[in-house]
Write a structure and sequence with these properties.
single chain, Rrf2 family transcriptional regulator, WH_DNA-bd_sf, Tscrpt_reg_Rrf2, WH-like_DNA-bd_sf
């Protein structure tokens, strides 16, 4: 299912790219998003696991970008936050005797697959640096 994780992650990375020499605190980042710092820290943990950011603890601690923004595509960021886009399926199992019910899920699955190909193709050509330059 779609969530705000991609938007949160792109916001974090864009901020880090705008302040390349600074370690930004999760409180500072959360303030930019009007979001709870705990949610920011969860996404930072995911970015650390993918070696995209580095963190430092202590009084002057925080997080900073560990990769070159021009080499990181929005597609890669998307794939770090989702495996794919899914708009979901009905909770109840459709009636297999119905002409719509017997094929609805496989047709939705094909639609979602096509959506993911299109999203990936569009995001592949946009680097974090390109996106950050809009601000």
């Amino acid at each position: 299912m779609i969530s705000g994780k991609f938007a949160i992650t792109v916001h974090i990375l864009t901020l880090l790219n705008k302040f390349p020499n600074d370690y930004l605190s999760s409180e500072f980042i959360a303030g930019s998003m009007n979001l709870n710092p705990v949610l920011v820290r969860k996404e930072i943990a995911n970015l650390k696991a993918h070696h995209i950011v580095e963190s430092k603890e202590g009084k002057n601690g925080g997080t900073k970008l560990a990769v070159n923004a021009s080499n990181l595509s929005l597609k890669e960021i998307f794939e770090m936050t989702f495996e794919s886009i899914g708009l979901g399926f009905a909770k109840n199992q459709p009636n297999p005797d119905c002409p719509v019910g017997k094929k609805i899920n496989q047709n939705l699955e094909a639609l979602y697959s096509e959506m993911n190909k299109n999203v990936s193709a569009q995001l592949e050509n946009i680097s974090l640096e390109d996106f950050s330059n809009q601000f």
